[in-house]
Design a protein that fits this description.
The protein is mainly alpha-helical and 282 residues long. It has 2 domains: 53 residues; 215 residues, Orthogonal Bundle (MetI-like fold), CATH 1.10.3720.10. 76% of the residues lie in helices and 2% in strands. It is built from 10 helices and 2 strands. A two-stranded antiparallel sheet has the order 1-2. Strand 1 and strand 2 form a beta hairpin. Helix 3 packs across helix 9 and helix 8 runs parallel beside helix 9. It is globular, with a radius of gyration of 24 Å. The two termini are 23 Å apart. The N terminus is likely disordered.
Length: 282
């Protein structure tokens, strides 16, 4: 049964607690969206005020000027005649991200799964992970350029190097958190250790692994933009660097905004996947 409240909303009675929880979650989502939008508007307002006070478009262009540049370069090539449009540069970076991030995720999950299942392998690899984890992937850029040149191989490997340790740690942690009772039940039903890993442990660890993929996506963007700043003729990092050298600050900010938009889109897709695969988040 439901009762009509003064504000015109239906409240769910105590005999349907799951429906009441769903209503609260929906209201919270709308509230968070509203506050998030307000935060973005306030940030844009502050940006506009600072740009007007400074009065120098090279130092800080206004929000409308940056928006016009963003729209113009959606169809205009940069550099003129020989380069790509803003979304063309974005597509180049996205393809590099997907290739390196995808390979790093697969490799990291595979290595993490073996480490979580075979103690000897874990003892062998864990010190290497701990030694390499504090190293920023950007430190490998000069080496990769010397070893592999400025082509796609160095960019691909840089992303993989940044993604794999994150995914190994996330996978091992998620697998360690799977209740032992689930594994014991599958073994009692005749599953081999490998089959129990694939059908029980990995499935139960999927939410934690997806959280790792979200963190790895951020690291992938950091790596690709950094290497494109130094060794690329296409991509958002190249566009940002080249525009900065030519004092085109509004185009630099347009490239940064593009990265933000793409980052939000990718993270939103991973959030949806997380919600889809984790019943507790529905």
């Amino acid at each position: 049964m439901t009762a009509q409240t003064a504000d015109g909303l239906d409240t769910v009675s105590q005999d349907r607690p799951e429906a009441a929880t769903l209503v609260r979650q929906r209201r919270f989502s709308w509230s968070r969206l509203g506050w998030g939008t307000a935060g973005v508007v306030l940030a844009l307002a502050l940006w506009q005020v600072l740009a007007v006070v400074k009065g120098d478009p090279v130092i800080l262009p206004t929000v409308p000027a940056t928006a016009r540049t963003f729209v113009d370069y959606l169809g205009q090539r940069y550099p003129a005649g020989t380069g790509e449009t803003l979304w063309g540069h974005a597509l180049v970076s996205v393809l590099r991200i997907l290739a390196g991030w995808g390979a790093g995720v697969v490799l990291g999950v595979a290595v993490g799964g073996v480490m979580a299942s075979v103690p000897v392998v874990r003892h062998l690899i864990d010190p290497l992970i701990e030694l390499s984890r504090p190293l920023p992937p950007l430190a490998f850029i000069p080496l990769f350029i010397v070893w592999f040149g400025i082509g796609e191989a160095s960019k691909f490997l840089l992303i993989v190097v940044g993604v794999v340790p994150i995914m190994i740690i996330a996978t091992v942690s998620a697998l360690d958190g799977v209740p032992k009772e689930l594994v014991q039940a599958s073994r009692a039903l005749g599953a081999s250790p490998f089959w129990a890993l694939l059908t029980v442990r990995l499935r139960a660890a999927v939410p934690g692994i997806i959280t790792g993929t979200r963190l790895a996506m951020g690291a992938a963007w950091t790596s690709i933009v950094a290497v494109e700043l130094m060794a690329a003729t296409r991509g958002l990092g190249y566009l940002i660097n080249n525009a900065g050298v030519n004092l085109q600050t509004s185009l630099v900010l347009s490239g940064i905004v593009t990265i933000s938009i793409l980052g939000i889109v990718f993270d939103g897709l991973l959030r949806l996947l997380h919600r889809r695969l984790d019943p507790t988040r529905r």
